[in-house]
Amino acid sequence: MKIRWLRTGLALVAWILVCTKVSATTTEFWTTETQSDRMKTIQLLVDTFQALNPHITVNLVPVDENDMPSQMAAASAAGTLPGLIEGSSELMLAFGEEGILDVKGAGMLVNKVGKERFFQGALKMMQTSGGGNYYALPYHGWIQGIWYRADWFKKAGLGPPDTWENILKAAKTFYKPRQNQYGILVGTKPEAYTEQCFTQIALSNGAGEFNSAGELIFNSRQTLEALKFYAELAKYNPPGPQTWRARDYYIQGKLAMFFYSTFIMDDLALAEVAAGSLTDAHFSQLGNSTFDPKLVDNTRVIATITKSEPGAYGAIVGLGLVNQRSKDKNEAARKLVEFLYEPTSYITFLHMAPGGMNPMLRDIAGKSEYLNDPKGVFNRYGRKKIEAIISGLDNIGSFTIVEGKTFPAAGKIYAKQIIPRMVYSVTIEGTKPADAIKWAEGQMRSVIND
């Protein structure tokens, strides 16, 4: 139905060409969705947009996210900048700080689309340093949360794992290693998954890397409490240094709860997607298992956890307007953004990765058209669960944004894997938390001063 609607736009070309007399404009749209199937979907959207706006030609260009900075620098030097880019919030902040993006145009479009429609946490992640405008518009993203066996919790008389107290109590209750059952999964290897888990816990206790004045404050009471709590949770992990792969324990019914992004949704709902987690290929403690069709019904997710304040974590991908210094080119890119936020266009884009691409507009998240994805993933969860998952976007945060101010140095710290190495040293090597934090802050200062 959506594809039929999109193709009807092509039938309007002849009529529009006769009635419209506007100077021709060509612009480029760079997207980080480089997979061939996704490119086909985005190209169809672009074709429909061009049919409705025959004076505008859009060249769709796939760009790997890791190559975006170098390609942007080359395009800037050559005077061939794109009109619109799609990429992570970190990229948008970096390009915004360099003055490449049209922040005035982005702010205007946020208001035109409807500022109140956006999840506020997602909007804050795109806010300019002064807080008065936006580097880009939030378009899609994923949410991290604690996915847990609601049936086990109910039987044990436990409340949902939404506070530190409840999380730890449940981890202890369900930790039964002799039965090959474990209480929780948090990352302990020195890699990105570990940092993602720790960041959400740290945010829920008010910990951070910088204060609003840009001063490094990582070595704090809040961080120490978070690291001690994290180390305690790690005691109830499956054996060995762990990463996201240990989700296999949950899918095989041997784990009570685990931190994961919304990309897990189809693994829990569809047998063909879960197949890779139903073997002993990754863990000798596990065997060959059959898919549990009731697992998705028995699973709940907590998107926001709380200690001293609400903490939610995830990744936001935005649409950034590039300043073309040409009124016609800027207007063409703005028109394309408006088209991409129209419900049918937006839902078509999001359905490329159900669960992995969540809407940034609250009203889209509740639409039946959005919940009826082609794979049937959302139908397995139901409207209430989907809305509960996406609600984490209201509180989503990171170490990069503090009180509306952005600190690009946090991205450099992330790239050096300082935090996951700190966690590994405590949980696996036995370093004292206070010593590990002192070391981590020293490493952060070196990165900042480099």
Overall description:
With about 450 residues, this protein is an alpha+beta fold. The chain folds into 2 domains: about 1-140 and about 315-380, 3-Layer(aba) Sandwich (D-Maltodextrin-Binding Protein, domain 2); about 145-305 and about 395-450, 3-Layer(aba) Sandwich (D-Maltodextrin-Binding Protein, domain 2), CATH 3.40.190. Helix content is about 45%, strand content about 15%. The chain has helices at about 1-10, 15-20, 35-50, 70-80, 90-95, 105-115, 120-125, 150-155, 165-175, 190-205, 220-235, 245-250, 265-270, 270-275, 295-300, 325-340, 345-350, 360-365, 370, 375-380, 385-390, 410-415, 420-425, 435-450; strands spanning about 25-30, 55-60, 85-90, 135-150, 255-260, 300, 305, 310-320, 360, 395, 400, 405. Strands 1, 2, 3, 4, 5, 6, 7, 8, 9 and 10 form a 10-stranded mixed sheet that branches. A two-stranded antiparallel ribbon has the order 11-12. The radius of gyration is 23 Å and the shape is globular. The termini are far apart.
Defining key terms:
single chain, 450 residues, alpha+beta, D-Maltodextrin-Binding Protein, domain 2, 2 domains, ten-stranded mixed β-sheet, two-stranded antiparallel sheet, 24 helices
- Could you name the CATH class of the largest domain? Alpha Beta
Distance between the termini: 54 Å
Estimate the strand proportion: 5-15%
Identify low-pLDDT runs: 10-20
Rg computed from alpha carbons, rounded to a whole number of angstroms = 23 Å
Q: Per CATH, what is the topology of the largest domain?
A: D-Maltodextrin-Binding Protein, domain 2
CATH homolog superfamily of the largest domain: Periplasmic binding protein-like II
Put simply, the count of helices is 24
Which structural category fits the helices and strands?
Answer: alpha+beta
Q: Please bin the fraction of helical residues.
A: 40-55%
Give the rounded overall mean pLDDT: 91
